[in-house]
Amino acid sequence: MRKMRRKGLASMAAQTVASTTNSVDLGPAAALSCRECGHRVPLGPVFACEECFGPLEIAYDFSAYDTEELRKQIEAGPANIWRYAPLLPVPADVADKPNINPGWTQLVKADNLARELGVTGGLYVKDDSGNPTHSFKDRVVAQAIEAARAFGFTTLSCSSTGNLAGAVGAAAARAGFRSCVFIPHDLEQGKVVMAAVYGGELVGIEGNYDDVNRFCSELIGDPAGEGWGFVNVNLRPYYAEGSKTLAYEICEQLGWQLPDQLVVPIASGSQLTKIDKGLQELIKLGLVEDKPYKIFGAQAEGCSPVSVAYKAGHDVVRPQKPNTIAKSLAIGNPADGPYVLDIARRTGGAVEDVNDEQVVDAIKLLARTEGIFAETAGGVTVGVAKKLIENGLLDPTLTTVVLNTGDGLKTLDAVAGTGLSATIRPNLESFREAGLA
Amino acid sequence: MRKMRRKGLASMAAQTVASTTNSVDLGPAAALSCRECGHRVPLGPVFACEECFGPLEIAYDFSAYDTEELRKQIEAGPANIWRYAPLLPVPADVADKPNINPGWTQLVKADNLARELGVTGGLYVKDDSGNPTHSFKDRVVAQAIEAARAFGFTTLSCSSTGNLAGAVGAAAARAGFRSCVFIPHDLEQGKVVMAAVYGGELVGIEGNYDDVNRFCSELIGDPAGEGWGFVNVNLRPYYAEGSKTLAYEICEQLGWQLPDQLVVPIASGSQLTKIDKGLQELIKLGLVEDKPYKIFGAQAEGCSPVSVAYKAGHDVVRPQKPNTIAKSLAIGNPADGPYVLDIARRTGGAVEDVNDEQVVDAIKLLARTEGIFAETAGGVTVGVAKKLIENGLLDPTLTTVVLNTGDGLKTLDAVAGTGLSATIRPNLESFREAGLA
Predict the structure, then answer these.
(1) Which helix or strand (DSSP H or E) is residue A182 part of?
(2) Where would I find the beta strands (DSSP E) of B316-356?
(3) Which residues of B touch A112 (CB under 8 A)?
(4) A432 Cβ partners below 8 Å, 6+ apart?
């Protein structure tokens, strides 16, 4: 049954390809290639292999690049992800097109946090709250915009429970697309406002997030969805490549060096797998020296299917029903879970999880030591980094990068208990009485 | 009475200077100079002239700079305000010290907004919501941090009702200072959380913002305040210089050219006067070609003392009791009001205001056209730009830059009415019925 639906989608999408890919210019992107069986198809708005239903990803032709020329070109590029245009599925003149232009966020040398955690080898926080809508989603949506433009789509869409809705709304507005985003109808008012302010259609679906997703799949196969690019469905192969830019930036910001260890959050697992892909590309292109690196995956205990599978030594991931404050990571059935397990094991990393209390503590720890106010997802990665040091899996003498993928302003509830340290009358006597002098 | 208090403060502060300025290295900053009478004093934590009580500002020695070498040095610098270290009161190695590193925010070419407003000469939004704590305050606090370090202060403080508290808390945490921020005790819980999360002391004062300020002035003169740097009081001359970086970045991002017109928000008026100072410096240094530019000031109608004075042709500003949703601009007695009037008149600009409804409309307009979700202050500048075009004061055929100084996530209440465009059941029939196909 599931296979049939996927096959239906794949062939429908393939039909669309035929009429749209003749003149597609997406730079070095040469084709789509199945991650499972290697079957190649032309670039188009397809996401599942017509042979084996495996996920399609971008295959590149980087053969013409000279390492030193490429490095110079990148370094002379704009202070955003388009400095890496030669490595992404986008046209060479992408920086001149209207887009949200995320990236080149700060890699913060976190010396205060390092001291608290006992890290001596150099600790860095890659702080993606600096993106235009303050989450890493801007990176992937910016890619989807360029693919949507290439394929002639006019409406940009997605299902979302938060960050992605805002990222799509903002990017669509800038780039001149209509947007229509689907969310569960009972989302918190604050999140609705953040997504609605960009003026696109924001449609509440009577049902939960799974119902929203199911409806979106139906819409893609219906004539009503013609001309619609769903950033994380029929544009997913392009969209997902945006996460590679995290790997590129981290290495360039370290002076074109691989870090020894990375701690990356896991929602669908796509981000972690694309970071690994990005690091491998840099090695193959000669932009960094080849050396071992370890990738660690971070989950919240209340949604830890990959962590559970990792610890049990399984190759497959058993779905969970999420129950955690880290809602942006709360995907109970992560599509790329098995690939994450592969990468953690191959690189000598691990997958770990922390409970909600540890998430909140880690948010406060990061804010107190580095002045970075992270979303709950950032609490997960910092909390997991701490736990991995404590249980000896993360080596504190090595260079370590921890990702913060979102902004604390979006998950204020998590730290709602934080408040005034004192209340005083407006005079010095009251100030002294409070012990503040 | 007022004079006496100011004189008292000035001489107290001067005492502190004597013991701290012997070995101060703040780069090109040569001295403090009174804006009114030109009296010079050594660099130190003073803010009022001991001769005439006028405001002190930084006097620089730029005489050794070669224009082309300076330009190259800047362009090779980091993607933050420290690329302009040679023009700021900071040591040359500032980029290596722990600080929040704001700036180099996007100058967005706002073609969609230009179309709606009828601007043909090129319209840009300088989007300072991309700073670490998502407001321009990070620029000024980053300067204050370096001054505090130079003067040996160990506690960083301020009075605040919002953005500044978060900026001080974050920067102090990163840079290793204790922080103690004073706010009115009845501030909204969300704002308290945003300021408290960085773990510094956050003290509620039983009283309004004026009471908080009065208390801070008392504390500066008391032994209990020894070692305390109040970013916008005894560190104000250094702090204020951070706003110059907006002028530098705008010109560099335009390809080392002056814009023809700028629309700048007015709270105390300091930002606008320092942007003018920054533009003048670039002209004198030969980094941009000298040509006329116009600076327009923007206020909310509910706090429009400078706009009222401008329209009445007055040189002085009559204080108002603020009542507007644009709380980050709600300073009823703006210290730099008279200087703003001077600059608007000298450059051929103007000062205008918009009401709260127009502020909200402008927030939505900017979000809908450019995908930028601005704080109410950004609604004020965009709304004023629109009004100035309508009343013929702003020339739509000229290159125009509008400032957005903060993030919409901090003033969600302003657009709380924004919501779902439709609610449907999770099927195509319901989708079609809602007219979304």
Answers:
(1) strand A178-184
(2) 351-354
(3) 98, 173-174, 176
(4) B224
**Structure-block tokens of residue B177:** 């200072």
Q: For residue B393, give the DSSP letter.
A: -
Whether residue A300 is found in the same domain as residue A387: yes
pTM here is: 0.94
A96 is a domain residue: no
Structural domain including A323 reads 107-134+243-415
Does the pLDDT of residue B430 top 60, yes or no? yes
Q: Chain A partners of B109 at a C-beta cutoff of 8 Å?
A: 98
Q: Which of residues 71-100 of B touch A (CB under 8 A)?
A: 79, 98, 100
Whether the CB of A357 is below 8 Å from some CB of chain B: the reply is: no
CA–CA separation, A58 and A89 (whole Å): 8
Backbone angles phi, psi at A9, to 5 degrees: -60, -45
- Whether residues B280 and B379 share a domain: the answer is yes
What is the distance between the alpha carbons of residues A414 and A369, in angstroms, rounded to a whole number?
18
Number of domains in chain A: 2
Tell if the CB–CB gap between B436 and A180 is shorter than 8 Å.
yes
What are the Cα distances from residue B348, in Å, to A119, B67, B274, B371? 57, 28, 17, 31
Clarify whether residues B358 and B256 are in a common domain. yes
Chain A interface includes B66 (CB < 8 A): no
CATH number at residue A299: 3.40.50.1100
Q: Give how far A397 is from chain B: nearest CA, Å.
A: 21
For residue B333, what are its two tokens? Answer: 């007695």
Instruction: Find chain B residues with C-beta within 8 A of A115's C-beta.
Output: none
| B85 belongs to a structural domain | no
- Model confidence over A287-302: pLDDT tens digits? 999 999 999 999 999 9
pLDDT at B208: 84
**Rounded to 5, what percent of chain B is helix, strand, coil?**
45, 15, 40
Q: What is the C-alpha to C-alpha distance for residues B200 and B203, in angstroms, rounded to an integer?
A: 10
Q: Give the residue from A104, A129, A145, A174 with the most B CB atoms within 10 Å of its CB, the best one to mutate.
A: A174
- Across the interface, do B101 and A98 touch by the CB < 8 Å criterion? no
Q: Dump pLDDT digits (tens) for A48-98.
A: 999 999 999 999 999 999 999 999 999 999 999 999 999 999 999 999 999
Which positions 373-412 of A are in contact with B (Cβ < 8 Å)?
A: 373, 407-410, 412
Please answer whether residues A334 and A271 qualify as being in contact, where contact means their C-beta atoms are separated by less than 8 angstroms.
no
Of the candidates A379, A395, A401, A372, the one whose C-alpha atom is nearest the C-alpha of residue A119 is A395
Residues A262 and A390 in one domain: yes
Q: Which residue has the tokens 């409806």?
A: A215
The question of ipTM being above 0.90 is answered as: yes
> Residue A432 falls within a domain, yes or no?
no
Looking only at the bridges linking them, the beta strands covering B40-41 and B29-34 are: antiparallel
Rounded to a whole number, what is the distance in Å from the CA of B397 to chain A's nearest CA? 21
Share of chain A above pLDDT 90, in %: 87
Chains A, B: CB contacts under 8 A, how many? 234
B436 contacts in A (CB within 8 Å)? 180, 201, 203
Q: Is residue A88 part of a domain?
A: no
Residue B364 at interface with chain A, using a CB cutoff of 8 Å: yes
Do B215 and A431 make contact, defined as CB atoms within 8 angstroms?
Answer: yes
* A window 134-153, beta carbon within 8 A of B: 134
B268 and B186 in a common domain: no
Do A17 and A111 lie in a common domain? no
pLDDT digits (tens, 9 = 90+) for A305-352: 999 999 999 999 999 999 999 999 999 999 999 999 999 999 999 999
Task: Answer yes or no: do B291 and B405 share one domain.
Answer: yes
Residues A132 and A138 sit within 8 Å (Cβ to Cβ): yes
